[in-house]
Design a protein that fits this description.
Elements (H helix, E strand, L loop, with lengths): L1 E6 L5 H9 L8 E8 L3 H10 L3 E3 L2 E8 L11 H8 L3 E7 L8 H36 L9 H13 L8 H5 L1 H4 L10 E6 L5 H9 L9 H4 L4 E3 L1 H9 L2 H10 L6 H12 L2 E6 L4 E8 L4 H8 L1 H5 L1 E8 H7 L2 H6 L4 E3 L9 E7 L7
Parallel strand pairs: 1-4, 1-5, 3-9, 5-6, 6-7
Antiparallel strand pairs: 2-4, 8-9, 10-11, 10-12
The protein binds guanosine-5'-diphosphate and magnesium ion (MG).
Length: 361
């Protein structure tokens, strides 16, 4: 999964990116990319049993764009548009650290709306441009890009005209593959991350959770956990000794770091779960969309495994854990044979049997 950061200049994007990347240092201009580990104690436990040559956690890709010179905002530069349109999720850093708390609700809504509106305007131009071309193609007696394209584009134009994003149209979701070439910005879900000041951190969680974001975000984007952090305080945390961090965080009423919150919220919003492959060579965690079938899990590993999918040997992580080892799980018949209709569950330990190739382990 790829997540792109955006927000007003000075909202704290680069500070958050530095935290995610875990490196620091002066950012060079241009696109920055970090592959951030998804912390998962289950991977560590599996690694202890299999003692593999390699342990590979799941990762999420984060991107930040450091632009040269003065930046226009919300007018998005072509580079920023490109970055955002290719992301699975847009992480919008909302600046609240310089805003008095009584103005947070209004200010948060404004910052989200200004990005969402910019997305609508740019997408409308994309749709209208494509419609014009498609109409010419059809007039010339040729086929459009895909069946139903002109109708879908008309529908999208009407939707955008009403101020609603591409992602509010279910048919667009279905046609997502064909539509990808257009890289609609409003097709990307928005996940806000609220950057608050040190003094407000104590009350920030309750205040931010109370902000009504209906109307500026899609209905399914307003629920779920909200990322509330102080980039300043997070940096202070990094400066103190590791064994003193918990006490320091407690003093601020923090239970989770900005990085942990961001990864968890991203997983939740993108509807991701993890499954595992195990063996002597490698223990590995993979991200998958919730509700995916066994062949799609195979496809996440390798497209050949999906093509040649025969069946999957599956044991739930909790069953493996209670059995105590993989052999014990097998003896207790907790390892199941599943076919192509099996829906992968979070924490499944999976071994794909394929006619074309065999998965590791
Ligand atoms: N006081 C305070 N200042 C912040 C915070 N986050 C960002 N800033 C200020 O904003 C400046 C720019 O932050 P940066 O992460 O580069 O913003 P970007 O333009 O969104 O990438 C920083 O140098 C800080 O002075 C914060 O949490 N508290
Ligand atoms: Mg920056």
């Amino acid at each position: 999964m790829r997540i792109a950061l955006t927000g007003r200049p000075g909202s704290g994007k680069s500070m958050l990116f530095d935290l995610l990347e875990g490196k620091g240092g002066a950012p060079a201009p241009g696109l920055r990319i970090a592959h951030v580990v998804v912390p998962d104690p289950r991977v560590d436990a599996l690694s202890r049993e299999f003692k593999p040559k390699k342990t590979t956690p799941a990762r999420i890709e984060f991107q930040d764009l450091e632009q040269k010179g003065s930046v226009q905002y919300p007018a998005l530069s072509p580079e920023r548009r490109e970055m955002l349109s290719r992301a699975d999720l847009v992480l919008l850093v909302v600046e609240l650290f310089a805003t008095p708390p009584e103005e947070w609700a209004e200010e948060a809504r404004r910052q989200i709306a200004e990005l969402a509106d910019e997305f609508l305007i740019l997408d409308l131009a994309t749709v209208e441009g494509r419609l014009e071309r498609v109409q010419k193609i059809v007039k010339a007696g040729q086929k459009p890009g895909f069946t139903g394209e002109p109708e879908l584009l008309e529908r999208l134009r009407a939707t955008l005209d009403e101020g609603r994003p591409v992602r509010s149209v279910p048919e667009a979701e279905e046609k997502a593959k064909e539509l990808r070439g257009f890289a609609f910005l409003s097709g990307r879900p928005i996940l806000p991350a609220f950057n608050v000041g040190e003094e407000q951190l104590g009350e920030a969680r309750a205040l931010v959770d109370a902000i009504d974001l209906s109307g500026v975000l899609q209905p399914n984007e307003t629920d779920g956990s909200r990322i509330v952090f102080s980039a300043e305080v997070e940096n202070q945390i990094l400066e103190i000794a590791e064994d003193e961090r918990a006490t320091f965080m407690e003093a601020f009423g923090l239970t989770e770091s900005a990085v942990a919150q961001t990864i968890r919220a991203a997983y939740e919003r993108a509807g991701l779960e993890s499954f595992f492959t195990v063996g002597e060579d490698e223990v590995r965690a993979w991200s998958l969309r919730r509700g995916s079938y066994a062949p799609q899990a195979a496809g996440a590993i390798h497209s050949d495994l999906e093509k040649g999918f025969v069946r999957a040997e599956v044991v739930a992580y909790s069953d493996w854990e209670s059995a105590g080892s993989m052999n014990a799980a097998k003896e207790k018949k907790l390892v199941r044979m599943e076919g192509k209709d099996y829906v992968i569950q979070d924490g499944d330990i999976v071994n794909i049997r394929s006619g074309l190739a065999k998965s590791r382990g």
